[in-house]
Amino acid sequence: MFKNHNDKIYSNYHFSFLEKISFKKRKEITKLIKNFLIEKEIEDVLDVGTTRDDKNVGSNYIVKNIGSYRIYKSISDQSINSDFFTYTKKKSITENFTEQEVENLKSDLVISNATIEHVGSLENQIKMCENIIKLSKKYFIINTPNRFHPFEFHTKIPLIHWLPKKFHRLILSLIGLKFFADEKNLNLLSENDLISIMEKLNINDFDIKKINFLFIKSNLILIGKKD
């Protein structure tokens, strides 16, 4: 009984510590994006992959703290009920969009935080980026964890995500993490993967910024400009 009690305390502390690190990274990413947006003419912002969880201090943190703009829009596969957003659309970013939907959602800045690794296959990730570019009038920003950081924050397991993806998923499945073993729920990207996607979409005007954790790049922030 005593051992289990201590294990529980350690587990709660452990995850609390990881959440604090994640929140610290969000703040660093937000600061980086705010610096980029200085003196940029932005009227409206579209957030891609908004979460309906409004209780967690880290939820939708980046879009809510990058600046004060006139209109905020949201597209998500969840129903978003928040006074923060002027316009919301429940739809997957990997689907096709009608001309009217594009007209309603199109914004000077389109931003997506930690969503692209959860949309499934590489084909879906390319389609997501294609739609983000289509919905952007000026700039687009895509933030995702770096696959080649030693620690993986979704599973809380180090290093095994460096293995070929089929072996990584097999191990996750064997140890009971079947949700993250499914490609549709977790498909991590590297810097080269992001570059390859931009090349496939014929996007040349972009840069990839990095945020470090333990002196190794943990987050990749792709900042692109609409041609």
Report on this model:
There is one protein chain. With 227 residues, this protein is of the alpha/beta class. It has one domain: Rossmann fold (3-Layer(aba) Sandwich). It is 38% helix and 24% strand. It contains 7 helices and 9 strands; from the N terminus they run αβαββαβαβββαααββ. The strands form 2 sheets. A 7-stranded mixed β-sheet has the order 3-2-1-4-5-9-8, with helices on both faces. Helix 2 links the parallel strand 1 (44-48) and strand 2. It is globular.
How far is the N terminus from the C terminus?
63 Å
The major pleated sheet works out as: 7 strands, mixed
CATH topology: Rossmann fold
Q: Helix/strand/pairing class, anyone?
A: alpha/beta
User: Based on the structure given, which CATH architecture is correct?
Assistant: 3-Layer(aba) Sandwich
Produce the secondary structure layout:
Elements: H1 2-37, E1 44-48, H2 61-65, E2 71-76, E3 87-90, H3 99-105, E4 107-113, H4 122-135, E5 136-145, E6 151-152, E7 157-158, H5 165-174, H6 178-181, H7 191-200, E8 206-213, E9 216-225
Parallel strand pairs: 1-2, 1-4, 2-3, 4-5
Antiparallel strand pairs: 5-9, 6-7, 8-9
